[in-house]
Specification:
alpha+beta, Jelly Rolls, Arc Repressor Mutant, subunit A, 2 domains, six-stranded antiparallel β-sheet, five-stranded antiparallel β-sheet, 13 helices
Length: 339
């Protein structure tokens, strides 16, 4: 599969990157704004006069291009990933807060009397509050997640064991050069893999993103946390699922899962049933089938059905065919021919 970007230092699996930000750059601002508004419904582009009033940085007028993908898991969590050329944007005061984690470029944020500047090269990130915000970006590549603030705050209170913990009422810069925050950011990027195929377990994925984001916010606010906040069964299952999803072609065994996670087979069965309503191997089969379907519908993939089934971890074509038809209501070969 063609790589869209190189984030090996974050151990992001290429498939997640491909899914969220495949290389289909376009100059369409309509598509760009539509993707952004899935995450920030009240967002709009700033007019030329406002650009001059707000931003001292010369605003580049080169041809616009963007390469973004957005996905909304439920009413409480959404994510956007990608890159775009310099842009001036604003969002009205709303019921959404968000984390912006840039890989490249610079953000300038204006909120009331507050001005923030976040530079990816200096390992900065941003928390955006519910308040009205005006933003200017350079050429940028970033991941951003948006939340229902009540849900994020509730998760923060859960981890801190402190009902008085509140989200900041204003936007702030997060310094990911701090070793604890840097590690949490890396763990967050790795955790994207444990979501598996987006659309399969959306509520579970939303909860996972809330958990990781709550820890980032708490550490950035210097709140006290117990060791169990960082090492618990939920985090262990995150890491295991991430590992499984990173290479679906591998013939995993229960022994491998036990050794990798440090959990017994009984606990693994219990944790997967609690989170996904199925066993570890049933979850793995689901992810392999979704991956196979995505490869079958991809016009750039010229492999046969048998090759795709092997690449997705099915050692027997017949078993793959039965599972595929049971899942999607059509057999894989006719599914590919229809496209």
């Amino acid at each position: 599969m063609q790589k869209s970007v190189h984030y090996s230092k974050f151990n992001l699996n290429d498939y997640i990157v491909e899914y969220l930000g495949s290389k289909t750059s376009t100059s369409s601002k309509y598509d760009f704004l539509r993707a952004l508004q899935l995450v920030w419904p009240s967002l709009y582009e700033i007019d030329a006069i406002s650009k001059k009033n707000f931003f001292a940085t010369p605003f580049q007028t080169n041809q616009f291009s963007q390469d973004t993908r957005a996905y909304k898991f439920d009413d409480d969590v959404a994510i956007i990933f990608g890159s775009h050329t310099p842009s001036a944007l604003a969002k009205m005061e709303d019921n959404t807060c968000s984390l912006v984690l840039p890989f490249k470029g610079k953000h300038q944020i204006y909120e009331s009397e507050c001005k923030l500047s976040a530079q990816a090269s200096e390992q900065h990130g941003l928390f955006l509050s519910e308040a009205e915000v005006f933003a200017y970006t350079s050429d940028i590549e970033a991941v951003a997640v948006a939340f229902n603030p009540i849900k994020l705050e509730s998760m923060m209170q859960h981890f801190s064991k402190n009902k008085s913990v509140r989200l900041p009422h204003h936007s702030l810069k997060i310094d990911f050069s701090n070793p604890r925050l840097k590690n949490l950011k890396v763990q967050f990027f790795k955790s994207l893999n444990c979501a598996g195929h987006f659309g399969a377990f959306d509520q579970v994925t939303a909860d996972m993103i809330l958990r990781h984001s709550a820890l980032i916010m708490l550490v950035s606010m210097n709140e006290s946390l117990t060791r169990n906040s960082f090492t618990n069964n939920a985090q262990i299952i995150d890491r295991l699922c991430s590992r499984l999803y990173s290479d679906l072609s591998e013939p995993y065994t229960l022994t491998f899962m036990e050794k990798f996670s440090g959990l017994s087979a009984r606990v693994l069965q219990k944790e997967f049933a609690k989170r996904f309503g199925m066993s570890p191997f049933a979850w793995l089969c689901e992810q392999r089938l979704f991956r196979a379907r995505d490869l079958l519908v991809n016009p750039n993939i010229v492999k046969s059905v048998s090759e795709i089934s092997r690449n997705c971890g099915f050692s027997h074509l017949g078993r793959f065919s039965v599972n595929f038809k049971n899942k999607f209501g059509v057999n894989a070969s006719s599914f590919k021919k229809k496209l």
